[in-house]
Amino acid sequence: MAFNPSTRQAGLIKAAIFVLALVPLARMVYLTLTGQLVEPLEFITRGTGDWTLYFLCFTLAVTPLRRLSKWNWLIKLRRMLGLYMFFYGFLHFMTFLWFDHFFDVQEMWKDVLKRPFITVGFIAFVLLIPLAVTSTNAMVKRLGGKRWQWLHRVIYVIAPLAILHFWWMKAGKHNFTQPIIFGVILGVLLLMRVYWARSKAVAAAAR
């Protein structure tokens, strides 16, 4: 049976997710300020990167969950989840720019160009920027629905780049468990879209 929350219930759900999405950041800040971390820089870098991937998965899971459950109201959560993906991605980038290079852009560029895993991660982050900038209703109207949809399909490029970044980062320690898990989840979410798009095309051609 489809669950259709009232406007008030939907608002409470969004508010709860908004607060819960800040808990990982609050935990990182708390553990850092209280001196409980042996290597706070590594912890923050890894943590913000992991949560960028979590929110990437959450964002891409909205459409499949909506289609399978018939809970159409889930679409109202996608923008917020996508913005949190950008938010943690921005924090991940800032830890790299600030703590690794102390805002020395020239040195940062050298690192970006020299190390492949940083290169693909940087490209993925740059591609996220126009998606975040155009996330408002005003930008949807300004671009037009079709152009906005085409622009936001860039997420299908960002997802494999993010996995490749994570894979290469973990390769140094020969620890591929997390990249494989994230890769499988994102692969399934993307393949579901391919299947539905192909089924729609076949049905349209049969008419």
UniProtKB/TrEMBL annotation:
Entry's Gene Ontology molecular function annotations: electron transfer activity; FMN binding; heme binding; metal ion binding; oxidoreductase activity, acting on diphenols and related substances as donors
Boundaries of every Ferric oxidoreductase domain copy: 49-162
Entry-linked InterPro entries: Fe3_Rdtase_TM_dom, MsrQ-like
Coiled coil regions in record: none
Keyword Amino-acid biosynthesis: no
Cofactor, free-text remark: Binds 1 heme b (iron(II)-protoporphyrin IX) group per subunit. Binds 1 FMN per subunit.
Keyword set, alphabetical order: Cell membrane, Electron transport, Flavoprotein, FMN, Heme, Iron, Membrane, Metal-binding, Transmembrane, Transmembrane helix, Transport
Quaternary structure note: Heterodimer of a catalytic subunit (MsrP) and a heme-binding subunit (MsrQ).
Name by which UniProt lists this protein: Protein-methionine-sulfoxide reductase heme-binding subunit MsrQ
Native source organism of the sequence: Rugamonas aquatica
